[in-house]
Every structure is written in structure tokens, then in C-alpha cells.
């Protein structure tokens, strides 16, 4: 820990940033490839209807993950704080409460969902073509979704207990097992969409088993302590983890909103085209989390050490990295759209052309998305959770939903593809005018005071 502190204070901001950035990016790319390959197998093995059906089911997946991140990150933050204060007994109580509460919560949600699977499938936009496939996928997800949630929570606590490599191994193994099982379930056993769901939950179960090795270590502080319900402790967990929940819930709203918009305009073909765009978005989007993972520990530490100039330098470096990454992704989408669509095994020419148009318009949003991520991370890292939550609410809920309702009335399907880019642009303009100017002006005034 002391070595890390010396690096943060004595190395250049640029060196520190890339020390954090590249390992985070590697892990997230591995996770992204897993998402992308999953879509490729479903598209080639089941077809456009299967691809659309899995995409219609994504909001339920996002719901489970958002609940897990809410409790996991909130609990992990509280756990680390208590361990830093030497209160190991209470820290173990936090771990016990987090694991127990997320398991019970997701199991109850799964039972309710399984009983009402047909109704929920129709709520998500399933029609006569996709309903049987959506029900197949969700039936498995509702019964075993607790494994996904448990892996997320355990992974957060294991990292906070000093074993980030084990978390990385669990993530990598989950991805590899999921890819292998997807091929086996879909192409060898012919189980289709249900096979894809079974592969996902089995792979998550393997990830949980790997994380359990952490508890066999003699030096681990992470033990399942005496369980006791505490409303105040749960309140602290929910408060600390709320921005992470909100961000993941935004993905739920994004997917459901886009699905409903395209299905109302173009039916199953529209959902199939958006499925291709969304799988690629899942791959591209996670790369921006590498910037967030690099900036968060830096800004948090510099804020505590009152290193204002280093915070500003970190934010500027994050802005430049986000812009370069956004340009690369936009050019990739614009130039390689036909190739990207072809790997999903889409046969319908109409779906192909819709997906190509969607990629080229939708990817414009990456020019602004990374900028917004930098400031979301900055606000959360300096303890301004309200501002971070406001950015998430504007970009993922308020602006996006309004644009998805209004733009298709004037631009048709092009309006659907442009809803996210315009939402990100609007938030970026607000941040540029208010947050960026305020941050840099404050830094300048602090510097002037020190010179005087």
C-alpha cells in the first residue's frame, strides 16, 4: 500500500494513469469479447429471431446485475472503510449482510419472475415470433440469476480484501467457459436460446467457485461473520452503492427503450438489427470503463491528499484518452459496419442494411460518451454523489427517453439510432459549460492563493 501511495504522489500523472488503465482495459476487453461471441453464436446458430429474443431478455439480466452492483459496491466500500478503522468484526458483518441480502433478494425476484414469465416477456416487447424464445431464455435466468448476482458481489469483496488477481482469473474463466458452453449448447446439443442461457448461468457458477478459493487463504480477512440484520448498515450500503446501481439501471432503460422503439416501427426485423448494434455497443461501451477504473483511485487519493493540480491533470488526461478512444470506435463503426454485421450470421438483407445504418449513426455517441464518463467518475471520486447521479439520470433516463419518444416521429428509424448520440451530446455540452469551467477555475484560484 505504501508503494502505491509513493507512485501516486511522485510519479507523473500520465504514468500513474496508464499503470491503472491498461490492466483494467485488458480485463474489460476480455469481458467484452465474451459478450460479443455470445451474440455471434446465437446469431449463427439460431438466427435473427433468436438474436432478437436474447436482446429482449437483456433488461432482466441488467436488473440482476444492477442490484448486485448496488449492494456489492456499497458493501465493499463500507467493508474497506471499517477494515481501515480496525473494526474487523463489523466489517465481517457487512460482508455477511451483503451476501445474504443479495442472494435472498434475487431468489425472490427470480421466483416472482418465473411465475409471471409470459407477462414479463410481453412487457419487454416480445411478439408472436420472439415470445417462445424469450420465455425459454428468461425461465433459466429467473431460476439461476442469483448465481450472476452472487459472483458480482463476491468479486467486489474479494478485490477489496486484497485479491484483485483472483477476481480477474474468475472473470476470465467465466468468459472462456461461457464461450465453450455456448458453442456446445447451441451447435452440438441444438438447445438454441435456452442453451445460451444455460451456458451463461453455468459459467457464472464456475466463477463463484473460483472466488471461493479466496476464503481458503490463511491471510484473508474476509470471513462470513455472525449475521445480524441492521437497517442502518443496509442504509449505508445502499447510499454508497447508489450511483453504480443507477448506471447499470440506465443500461436496462436503454435496452428496453430501444427495443420498444424499434419493435413499434419495424417489428422483429428492427429488434434483430438493434440486437447487432447492442452487442457491438456492449463490446465498445466497456472500453470506457477502463478510463473510469484508472481515474477513480487516482482522483480519490489526490482529493484526500489535497493535490488539486493533480486532479485537474488527471481529468484532462481522461478527456484526451476518451476523445481518442471515441474517434477510433467511430471510425471503426463507419468503415467496418458491413463486416461487423456479417459476423453475426444475419441473412435478411433488410436487417443487414438496418444494422449498418444503425452502427454508423449510433457510434457517433462515442465522441461524447467518454467525456461524460470522465466527469461522472470525477464527481463520484471526490464524494459528490449527487452530481454523479444527476449526470447518469440526464444521459440514461431524462434525455434518452425523451429523444426516443420524439425523434422517431420526425426521422423514423434514424431518429432511434440518433437518440443516444444526441443524449450524450446534450449532457457533454452541459458538463463543458458548467462542470469543466468550474473545476479548472477553482484549480486556478487555489494555485493563485498558494503563490500569494
TrEMBL record:
One of its GO terms (biological process) is response to antibiotic. It holds the Pfam family MatE. It is found in: Cell membrane. It is a multi-pass membrane protein. It comes from the Bacteria. The keyword Membrane applies. The chain crosses the membrane at residues 16-37, 57-82, 94-117, 137-157, 169-190, 196-215, 236-259, 279-302, 323-346, 358-378, 385-407, 413-435. Keywords: Antibiotic resistance, Cell membrane, Membrane, Transmembrane, Transmembrane helix, Transport. The keyword Phosphoprotein does not apply. InterPro entries: MATE_fam, MATE_MepA-like, MATE_MepA_subfamily, MdtK-like. GO terms for cellular component: plasma membrane. GO terms for molecular function: antiporter activity; xenobiotic transmembrane transporter activity. Belongs to the multi antimicrobial extrusion (MATE) (TC 2.A.66.1) family. MepA subfamily. This is Multidrug export protein MepA. It comes from Sediminibacillus halophilus. The lineage of its organism: Bacteria, Bacillati, Bacillota, Bacilli, Bacillales.
Amino acid at each position: 500500500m505504501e508503494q502505491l501511495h509513493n507512485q501516486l504522489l511522485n510519479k507523473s500523472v500520465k504514468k500513474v494513469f496508464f499503470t491503472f488503465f491498461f490492466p483494467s482495459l485488458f480485463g474489460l476487453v476480455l469481458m467484452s469479447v465474451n459478450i460479443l461471441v455470445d451474440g455471434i453464436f446465437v446469431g449463427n446458430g439460431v438466427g435473427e429471431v433468436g438474436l432478437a429474443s436474447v436482446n429482449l431478455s437483456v433488461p432482466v439480466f441488467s436488473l440482476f446485475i444492477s442490484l448486485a452492483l448496488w449492494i456489492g459496491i456499497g458493501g465493499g466500500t463500507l467493508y474497506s472503510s471499517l477494515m481501515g478503522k480496525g473494526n474487523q468484526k463489523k466489517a465481517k458483518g457487512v460482508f455477511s449482510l451483503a451476501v445474504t441480502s443479495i442472494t435472498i433478494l434475487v431468489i425472490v425476484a427470480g421466483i416472482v419472475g418465473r411465475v409471471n414469465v409470459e407477462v414479463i416477456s410481453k412487457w419487454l416487447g416480445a411478439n408472436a415470433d420472439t415470445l417462445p424464445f424469450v420465455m425459454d431464455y428468461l425461465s433459466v435466468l429467473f431460476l439461476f440469476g442469483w448465481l450472476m448476482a452472487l459472483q458480482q458481489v463476491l468479486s467486489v469483496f474479494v478485490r477489496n480484501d486484497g485479491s484483485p488477481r483472483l477476481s480477474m482469473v474468475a472473470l476470465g474463466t467465466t468468459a472462456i467457459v461461457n464461450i465453450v458452453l455456448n458453442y456446445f449448447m447451441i451447435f452440438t446439443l441444438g438447445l438454441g436460446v435456452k442453451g445460451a442461457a444455460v451456458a451463461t448461468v453455468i459459467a457464472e457458477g464456475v466463477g463463484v467457485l473460483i472466488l471461493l478459493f479466496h476464503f481458503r487463504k490463511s491471510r484473508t480477512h474476509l470471513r462470513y461473520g455472525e449475521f445480524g440484520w441492521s437497517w442502518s448498515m443496509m442504509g449505508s450500503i445502499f447510499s454508497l452503492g447508489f450511483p453504480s446501481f443507477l448506471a447499470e439501471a440506465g443500461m436496462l432503460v436503454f435496452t428496453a427503450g430501444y427495443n420498444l422503439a424499434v419493435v413499434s416501427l419495424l417489428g422483429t426485423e428492427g429488434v434483430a438489427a438493434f440486437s447487432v448494434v447492442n452487442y457491438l455497443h456492449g463490446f465498445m461501451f466497456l472500453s470506457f470503463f477502463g478510463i473510469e477504473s484508472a481515474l477513480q483511485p487516482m482522483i480519490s487519493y489526490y482529493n484526500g491528499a489535497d493535490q488539486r493540480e493533480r486532479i485537474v491533470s488527471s481529468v484532462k488526461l481522461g478527456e484526451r484518452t476518451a476523445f481518442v478512444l471515441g474517434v477510433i470506435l467511430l471510425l471503426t463503426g463507419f468503415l467496418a459496419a458491413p463486416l461487423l454485421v456479417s459476423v453475426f450470421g444475419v441473412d435478411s438483407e433488410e436487417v443487414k442494411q438496418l444494422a449498418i445504418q444503425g452502427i454508423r449513426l449510433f457510434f457517433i455517441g462515442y465522441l461524447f460518451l467518454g467525456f461524460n464518463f470522465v466527469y461522472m467518475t470525477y464527481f463520484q471520486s471526490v464524494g459528490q454523489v449527487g452530481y454523479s447521479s444527476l449526470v447518469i439520470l440526464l444521459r440514461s433516463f431524462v434525455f434518452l427517453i425523451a429523444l426516443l419518444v420524439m425523434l422517431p416521429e420526425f426521422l423514423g428509424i434514424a431518429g432511434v439510432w440518433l437518440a443516444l448520440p444526441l443524449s450524450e451530446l446534450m449532457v457533454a455540452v452541459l458538463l463543458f459549460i458548467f462542470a469543466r469551467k468550474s473545476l479548472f477555475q477553482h484549480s486556478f484560484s487555489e494555485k493563485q492563493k498558494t503563490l500569494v
